Amino acid sequence: MSDYLHNSIEYLKGVGPQRAALLNKELGVFTYQDLLQHYPFRYEDRTKFYSIKEIVDEMPYVQLKGIIKKKELVGTGLKKRLTAYLEDGSGNVELVWFQGINWVNDKVKTGVEYVVFGKPTRFGSKFSIAHPEIDIAAATQTKSQNLRPVYPLTEKLKSKHIDNKVVSRLQEEVLKSVGDHIIETLPPKLLQKYALIYKREALFNIHFPKNHELLAKAQQRIKFEELFFLQLKLLRLKHVRKVSYKGQVFNDSTLLTDFYKNHLPFDLTDAQKRVIKEIYADMKSGKQMNRLLQGDVGSGKTIVGFICMLLAIGSGAQCALMAPTEILAQQHFTGLQRYAAKMNLSIDILTGSTKKSDRKAIHDKLLTGELKILVGTHALLEDVVQFKNLGLAVIDEQHRFGVAQRSKLWKKNEAVMPHVLVMTATPIPRTLAMTLYGDLDISTIDQLPAGRKPIKTVHRYDSHRLQVNQFLREQIALGRQVYVVYPLIEESEKLDLKHLMDGYESMARAFPDVALSIVHGQMKAADKEYEMQRFKKGETKIMVATTVIEVGVDVPNASVMVIENAERFGLSQLHQLRGRVGRGAEQSFCILMSNYKLSQDSKVRINTMVQTNNGFEIAETDLKLRGPGDLTGTQQSGVLDLSLADLSKDQILLQQAREAAISILDTDPELVKTENECIKTQIAVVKKSGLSWSKIS
Ligand code: ADP
Ligand code: MG
C-alpha cells in the first residue's frame, strides 16, 4: 500500500496530537489506512423527516426540522444543563444537553432553522431529546447524503466530541486526497467472476454511500476481500505443512487384523469405517497428519481413535490421548484399558493428581518405549513428559484446547512430528469449520451406531415438577438411571452451588427410597470419581450434577436427562448434555425444565432442542443466535479477526471466497503470475502491518 495511506493520523486536517492519541488508544486507528478501515456498523436513513406531533412513545431515532425558539441554562454544578425548545408548526419538543454545555450553547442559535436527530423520551405529557445531533438546516441541504454512517465509537471519544460527524469528516479528508493511492488487491478475473466493485469505489461507498445499492456492493466487496485473504492464508498454511512436514509411515497392520478378528466388540458403522480409511491414508502417506474428526455425541469416536492407535503401535510408535478434564481422561483410560488389555498393550494415565512416584515410573516407561499408550490431561504437555517415539497424538474435545496446545504436542517428537487427530463432539457448521479448522483436514462421522433410538426431548415448566418426578419414578422402577443437571455460571459460583445443593435436597425428599449421587466442580477429584463410579455401577440411581458431566461421560444405563433452568444453557451445551443419554438400547428422554419467563432466544434454543437431535442442525441455529466468536471461544479469535464479514451471515460469500482462493492456489500456488501480483502485494502488506500471518499456526 502506498505511503500516503501510511501517514500518521496526527497529520490529517482536524486531528492533531491530542485527537490522534485518543484515536490510537480508543480505536486502534494510527494511520490513514486504519481510519479508512474503520467501517461503519450501520447507516441511518436520513431521507425521512417527522413532524413533532407525530412523535409517540417507543420511537427509535427521529429526524426533525424546526426553529429553536428559546434556550436556557438550568440548574447549577453537576445538575447544570442546557435546554432548547424546537418548534416546527405542529408542536414543540425539548432538547437537552448535560455535557459540553458551553460548547453547544455557543453553537446553537435561537431563530435559526435546524435539522435535529435523536431519540425522543417522554417526560409527562412532553417529549424530550437528550444530546441530539443538530445541524443548521441550510447546511444539510447542500450535502445530499441520505445514508449516514454510524461508526463504532467509545464513550470516551464521544465525551471529547469525536462523534460520527467528526469521523465522517475525517474520512472525507482522507478520501479527498487519496487519488490513486488505494491499490487494487484482487485480480480482474476475480472481480469479474464474482461481480465485485473496485476497492477504491468500495471504500468511498462504505463511508459515503450514494444509495442502498452501492452500499450493498461496497459491503460485499470488502467482506469478500476479508474472507478471501483469510482463506488464502489458511489454505497456504495447510499446503506448506503438507509439503514440508514429514510424518512417520505407519503401515504394519498385524495388530489391527488381530483386533478386528478377535476383539472388536461390535460392528463398526459405515461412517466409522470410512473415517478410519481416511485417517489410515494420512498415516501411510509420509506426511504429517493434522486431521479433525467430527462426529455427533455418541457417534463412536473413541474406538476410531483406538483403532488408529493400533496402526501406530503396530509400526513401533507410541500414542497419547489428551482430554480436557480429569473425569474424561479417567473415563477414556478405563475405556481404552479394556481394549488394550485384550491386545496386551501397556497403557497408563497421567493427570494433575497422579502421585509423584507413579509419575516417575511413567516417565521412565515412556522413555524406554515400553509404555504404548498414555492417556491424560494437560499434564501430558509438561516438558518432563518425553516419549521414546510419539507417533500419534489424539486430542479429545478440541474446543477446550487452543491451537498453541496442539503445536506443543507436535514438539513431543523432535525427530518427526507426531500425527495429530483432533476429535470434537461439537459439530461445527461447514462454513465455520472451513475457517476455524481451515488448516486441518476434516473427517466426519455422520451416522450413529445401529439400534439407537432417537432421544425424546420435551419442555416442561417448573410447575409440572410433580408429574416429572412421577415419570422419573417410573423410569427408575424400570431399572433406568437419571441425570439431573444444574447450570453453573462462573460469576456466581456460590449461588449456583447453593442452587445445586437445594436441588439435591429436594430430590432426596422426593425420592426417599432411591440412592442419589452428587458431583460438582468444587469436590476433590477423588470424591468426584468415587461418586461417578457409584453411579456407573448402578449403585445410585440419580446423579445430581453441574455441567462437569457435560462432555464425554458414558453411562449407557442412564436414559433420562433432566436439565434444570434449561434457559440458562447455550444450545451446544444442551446438546452435549443430552448426548449423555441415548447410549444404551433403551428409549431415552431429555426433559428441559424452565419457568414461564423466557427470552426470545431461550425459546428458540429450547424449541430447537425439542425439534431435532441432529448436532449439525443445532450448530447452525447456535451460530445464528450467538455469532461465531462465542461459539468457538476466545482461543480461536485470532482467526476470526474480521471487521466487516460475519461468518454466521455471510456463508455464501465465504463459500465463494474459499472457492476463489482454492482456484488461485491451484493454478498459481506461489503467486508468481502477473495477474496475481496484487494478491502477493497485499499479503506482504498484511504481514508487515502486524496482522500476523502466523498467529494461527
Ligand atoms: P463419542 O463419539 O461421543 O465420543 P463414544 O466413543 O463415547 O462416542 O461412543 C459412545 C458409545 O457407543 C460407547 O458406549 C461405545 O462403546 C458405543 N459404540 C461406538 N461405536 C459403536 C458401534 N459401531 N456399534 C455399537 N456401539 C458403538
Ligand atoms: Mg467422546
Would you give an account of this structure?
By secondary structure, this protein is of the alpha/beta class. The chain is built from 26 helices and 22 strands. Among the domains are: 47-144, Nucleic acid-binding proteins (OB fold (Dihydrolipoamide Acetyltransferase, E2P)); 254-445, P-loop containing nucleotide triphosphate hydrolases (Rossmann fold, 3-Layer(aba) Sandwich); 456-612, Rossmann fold (3-Layer(aba) Sandwich), CATH 3.40.50. The strands form four sheets. A seven-stranded mixed β-sheet has the order 6-7-4-3-2-5-8. A seven-stranded parallel β-sheet has the order 12-13-11-14-15-10-16, sandwiched between helices. The protein is globular. Residues 630-639 and 690-697 have low confidence and may be disordered. Adenosine-5'-diphosphate is lined by residues 266-269, 272, 295, 297-303, 425, 449, 554, 556, 583.
Give the SSE map.
Blueprint: H1 3-6, H2 16-27, H3 32-36, E1 42-45, E2 62-74, E3 81-87, E4 92-97, H4 101-107, E5 113-118, E6 120-123, E7 126-130, E8 133-136, H5 137-142, E9 147-150, H6 155-159, H7 164-176, H8 188-193, H9 199-207, H10 212-244, H11 254-262, H12 270-284, E10 290-295, H13 301-314, E11 318-322, H14 326-342, E12 347-350, H15 356-368, E13 373-376, E14 390-396, H16 403-410, E15 419-424, H17 430-436, E16 441-445, E17 456-461, H18 465-477, E18 481-485, H19 493-510, E19 516-519, H20 525-536, E20 542-545, E21 558-563, H21 571-578, E22 589-594, H22 600-611, H23 615-626, H24 628-632, H25 651-667, H26 677-688
Parallel strand pairs: 4-7, 10-15, 10-16, 11-13, 11-14, 12-13, 14-15, 17-22, 18-20, 18-21, 19-20, 21-22
Antiparallel strand pairs: 1-9, 2-3, 2-5, 3-4, 5-8, 6-7
Helix pairs in contact: 9-10, 10-25, 11-13, 12-13, 22-23
Adenosine-5'-diphosphate (ADP) binds near residues 266, 272, 298 and 425.
